[in-house]
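Dear Dr. K.,

Following up on our conversation at the group meeting, I've run the structure prediction for SDR family oxidoreductase from Halobacillus naozhouensis. I'm pasting the input sequence below exactly as I used it, so you can double-check it against your construct before we proceed with anything downstream. Let me know if the numbering doesn't match what you have in your notebook.
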Amino acid sequence: MKRHLSGRKILITGASSGIGMYLAIHVARRGGIPILAARSVDRLRIISQHVQQEFEVPCYWYEADLSNDADWKDVIDRICFEHGPIDALINNAGMAVFDYVSEAKWQDIDRMLAVNVKSLIRTTHQLLPHFLNQKQGHVVNIASQAGKIATPRSSVYSASKHAVIGFTNALRMEVEKDGVYVTSVNLGPVRTNFFKSADPSGGYEKAVENVMLDPNKVALSVVKHLFTKRREINLPAWMDSGSKAYQLAPGLVERGLKRQFSKK
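The predicted structure tokens came back this morning:
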């Protein structure tokens, strides 16, 4: 296994399960040092122990609620103080509650925007000066195909991912001259615990179970492209083709895929 990340410190948010957990494993397998942040202390402890025993690299973890901006800022400051300059950031934390706007609870809307958008920008904003001073670094933002194609009952979630893609694209142009890479990872449905909060009924997960992505393979693709000049990672490929068609003829696609768009 090529250890192209040897000694590099990678901060991963939302690291207690799913894609985040596999990101930690693949970073460590390539010699990197995962620094994990999430709410679930028990899960973080287990992942950290596994990584250290299996790959013989340090793996640090921090309890953090990314929906609380002040607390999350303090955790980032602590990480930077204890570890010095970070080499790469993977903004993986995200959540959703699928609902019609007219029926949505404000606390769900507020939390989605806080976790998916504000915390991502907060983390990037605090770490970016380190990257610029080092003249190297990589910001990877886990977005969604929902940020390219909005569907009913995902209006706020789609809006949050539209924001992530817009932020990522602008940031990429701002820092490319300074040796810092910025990548957007736009995913379709992934087989994780994400849908337990997004759609507790299980209806949407059942409707798309045959096309769901493997979180291990997603994480592997992301880690393989760390410290490479990659604009986007789009998975699955057929959904990326659909999003491109949507940009060209949104009305036609909405009419043609109305039934599929309403599966939530």
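Two things stood out to me. The mean pLDDT is 92. The chain has one domain: 9-261.

Best regards,
J.T.
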